[in-house]
């Protein structure tokens, strides 16, 4: 019915049209008038619709040109349009031609004059122009007619005669430039909100030049940073971005797909899609220039198609896929061979195995598979990774490392730590056979290691500086452990079946930090006093421990249960054994004892909140048989260090001495330090005392 009604309306309008009266006229002339009228109307409307409605900022130019052309005047007038290349001169000229040509008996738009001039065809151009204007091919006209309007364009202002009206075309203003770019790049004037910043970058780069905005789009774009664009669901088409080097789409939480044309970005060096949790489709990525690929926390991404392109010689790439949903690594990934230096696969819960082809990556330096909860083994050829320095396989199901692992002679850090609460099979480490020459750190914590689970020749790890064995089930350590001449850190805490520390622990001449907390020791070997480098001794939660051994002179920190009277008595017995050295000291020597408790022990006589505390020394304090010094306790967290001041004041109120020293967390491996006990010896107080009164506050 709508079509029928439309036709009725059209026919009614046609019937009401006023015709031409030819009774007193020449019929052929009237027919020509009708043809010219219809032709001009059709020409104007068609061209106007096809060109002008999408020309950004054209109205301002049309108004000025109409003013310069002065159509209402019957003289001959020429207008020149001047501007730099690509600014839109021809577009403006075409627009004014389409708008006004129907008002002239003859009109012709002559394009590509410059190109034809280069071919020495100016005479032919002239003939074409005149023939079209007169609609005759055999007649040449050289004179000008009143009412003519000539519009020319040029980049050279000097070519325009002085009597010619001039219209200068400037760069597009920012708003028009943005509108033009969006129309051609996104097919709409207002793009997705997340592309506004990117559009502005391109517009500023092209500086309002219309040709660049229309044709180049993203051709010159080198960086795209759309991090945290929450509404972005699909990336741009990368096919028109041959110079793209940096792409950051981090935390685009709605992103579902990356455009497949990404593989054409041969100059791409950094690609970051971390935390795109809804990303489901990721295409091939070109690695010819790629240095970093980050797919961390893309938890919905189950398949990675792989890589394309060949990397340049001498280049390296880092690939991060931690906590992604990828189920299987693409085999093409390991065609990178010597180029792949870092591979992070931490927390990939869907990963069941590593392909053996990973061992072709001879340049791999870091391999992390921590928290891959379904991973049960490493490839047998793992020892072929000749440049591997860091292997983290913590919190996996791996219980039998392949024997070839010992051939990793550049390996510096090796971790198989397990979760404390897991029910596990017994872990067995292979014989060392004097390999692993560079290993400095070995962590086998909570691996449920029984006697025999550690190789008897473990002591041949001569470069080892840190050994973590906490939470295991062995009763005895291999005898070769005494060969660890470079060992600085040993953690045996939580090994409840290990009830006796061997006497030959004295051989660990470089040991600085010893963790024995949570064990069932009743006593410690006296040979601990021979550990000449020991600075920190951790004994917390050793509930059966009743006494402490003699301390090495350089020991700075002891972590113990200071609420235990037996431990405290043992501590003061140690201090008493140092009585001679303490009393003869004429400088403030500092000994620190640490507790993980936040409560100051009750046996401190003077306690308070704040930054200072004052005490009165007992009578006859200067008699060394009765008084060794005083102990100061500080409770608080030491992130770095603080400066403390000890001010001794004689009772005359005049004589005083200030000592300044630092409290700091001196552990290399831990920043937990809650309570510090400082021993201030007699000699340090004596220097500040009054020789006559001997009374000091």
Please outline the helices and strands.
Layout: H1 2-15, H2 27-51, H3 58-69, E1 77-82, H4 89-100, H5 113-118, H6 122-134, E2 149-154, E3 165-168, H7 174-186, H8 196-206, H9 210-216, E4 223-225, E5 246-248, E6 270-272, E7 285-286, E8 292-294, E9 307-308, E10 317-320, E11 340-344, E12 366-368, E13 390-392, E14 413-415, E15 441-443, E16 466-468, E17 489-491, E18 513-515, E19 536-538, E20 557-559, H10 565-577, H11 579-584, E21 592-595, E22 629-635, E23 641-649, E24 656-664, E25 675-681, H12 682-686
Parallel strand pairs: 1-2, 1-3, 4-5, 5-6, 6-8, 7-9, 8-10, 10-11, 11-12, 12-13, 13-14, 14-15, 15-16, 16-17, 17-18, 18-19, 19-20
Antiparallel strand pairs: 21-25, 22-25, 23-24
Helix pairs in contact: 2-4, 7-8, 7-9
Q: How would you describe this structure to a colleague?
A:
Among the domains are: 143 residues; 105 residues. It has a 15-stranded parallel sheet with strand order 4-5-6-8-10-11-12-13-14-15-16-17-18-19-20, with no helix packed on it. A three-stranded parallel sheet has the order 2-1-3, with helices on one face. The chain has 697 residues and is an alpha/beta fold.
- The shape is elongated
Subunit organisation of the chains: single chain
| Extended strand count | 25
Label the structural class.
alpha/beta
Task: Specify the number of helices.
Answer: 12
User: Which strand order do you get reading across the main beta sheet?
Assistant: 4-5-6-8-10-11-12-13-14-15-16-17-18-19-20
Biggest β-sheet strands, sense, barrel:
15 strands, parallel
Proportion of residues in extended strands = 5-15%
Helix content: 10-25%
Pfam family, one: LRR_1
Membrane topology: Peripheral membrane protein
GO molecular function, one term: NAD+ nucleosidase activity, cyclic ADP-ribose generating
Keywords: Coiled coil, Hydrolase, Leucine-rich repeat, Membrane, NAD, Repeat
């Amino acid at each position: 019915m709508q079509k029928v009604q439309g036709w009725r309306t059209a026919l009614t309008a046609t019937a009401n049209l006023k015709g031409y009266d030819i009774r007193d006229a020449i019929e052929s002339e009237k027919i020509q008038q009708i043809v010219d009228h219809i032709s001009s109307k059709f020409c104007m409307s068609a061209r106007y619709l096809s060109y002008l409605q999408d020309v950004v900022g054209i109205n301002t130019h049309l108004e000025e040109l109409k003013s310069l052309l002065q159509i209402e005047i019957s003289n001959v007038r020429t207008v020149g349009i001047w501007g730099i290349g690509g600014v839109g001169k021809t577009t403006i000229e075409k627009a004014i031609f389409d708008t006004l040509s129907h008002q002239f008996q003859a009109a012709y738009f002559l394009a590509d004059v410059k190109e034809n001039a280069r071919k020495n065809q100016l005479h032919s151009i002239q003939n074409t122009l005149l023939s079209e204007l007169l609609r005759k091919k055999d007649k040449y006209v050289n004179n000008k007619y009143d009412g003519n309007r000539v519009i020319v364009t040029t980049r050279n202002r000097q070519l325009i005669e002085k009597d010619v009206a001039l219209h200068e075309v400037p760069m597009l203003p920012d708003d028009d430039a943005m509108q033009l770019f969006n129309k051609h790049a996104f097919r709409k004037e207002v793009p997705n909100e997340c592309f506004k910043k990117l559009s502005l970058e391109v517009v500023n780069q092209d500086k309002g030049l219309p040709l660049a905005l229309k044709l180049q789009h993203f051709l010159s774009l080198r960086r795209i940073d759309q991090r945290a664009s929450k509404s972005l669901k699909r990336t741009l088409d990368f096919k028109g971005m041959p110079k793209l080097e940096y792409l950051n789409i981090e935390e685009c939480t709605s992103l579902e797909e990356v455009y497949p044309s990404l593989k054409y970005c041969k100059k791409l060096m950094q690609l970051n899609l971390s935390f795109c949790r809804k990303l489901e489709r990721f295409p091939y990525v070109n690695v010819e220039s790629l240095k970093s690929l980050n797919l961390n926390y893309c938890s919905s991404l189950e398949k990675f198609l792989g890589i394309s392109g060949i990397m340049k010689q001498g280049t390296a790439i880092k690939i991060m896929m931690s906590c992604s949903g990828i189920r299987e690594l693409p085999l093409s990934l390991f065609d990178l061979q010597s180029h792949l230096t870092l591979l992070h696969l931490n927390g990939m819960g869907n990963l069941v195995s590593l392909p053996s082809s990973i061992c072709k990556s001879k340049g791999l330096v870091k391999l992390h598979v921590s928290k891959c909860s379904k991973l049960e083994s490493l490839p047998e050829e793992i020892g072929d990774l000749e440049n591997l320095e860091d292997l983290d396989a913590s919190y996996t199901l791996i219980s039998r490392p392949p024997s070839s692992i010992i051939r990793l002679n550049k390996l510096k850090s090796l971790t198989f730590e397990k979760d404390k609460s897991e029910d596990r099979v017994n872990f067995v480490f292979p014989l060392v056979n004097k390999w692993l020459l560079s290993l400095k750190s070995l962590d086998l914590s909570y691996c449920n290691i029984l006697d025999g689970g550690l190789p008897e020749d473990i002591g041949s790890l001569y470069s080892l500086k840190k050994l973590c064995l906490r939470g295991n089930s062995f009763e005895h350590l291999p005898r070769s452990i005494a060969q660890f001449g470079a060992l600085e850190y040993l953690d045996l805490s939580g090994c409840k079946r290990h009830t006796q520390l061997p006497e030959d622990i004295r051989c660990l001449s470089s040991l600085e930090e010893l963790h024995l907390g949570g064990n069932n020791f009743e006593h410690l070997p006296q040979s601990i006093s021979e550990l000449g480098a020991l600075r920190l001794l951790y004994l917390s939660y050793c509930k059966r421990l009743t006494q402490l051994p003699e301390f090495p002179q350089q020991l700075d920190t002891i972590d113990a249960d200071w609420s235990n009277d037996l431990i405290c008595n043992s501590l003061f017995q140690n201090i008493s054994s140092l009585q001679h050295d303490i009393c003869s000291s004429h400088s403030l020597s500092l000994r620190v004892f640490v507790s993980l408790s936040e409560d100051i022990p009750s046996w401190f006589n003077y306690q308070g909140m704040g930054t200072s505390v004052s005490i009165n020394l007992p009578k006859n304090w200067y008699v060394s048989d009765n008084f060794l010094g005083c102990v100061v306790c500080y409770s608080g967290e030491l992130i770095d260090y603080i400066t403390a001041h000890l001010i001794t004041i004689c009772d005359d109120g005049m004589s005083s001495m200030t000592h300044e020293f630092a409290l700091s967390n001196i552990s290399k491996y831990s920043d937990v330090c809650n309570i510090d006990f400082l021993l201030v010896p007699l000699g340090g107080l004596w220097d500040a005392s009054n020789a006559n009164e001997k009374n000091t506050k």
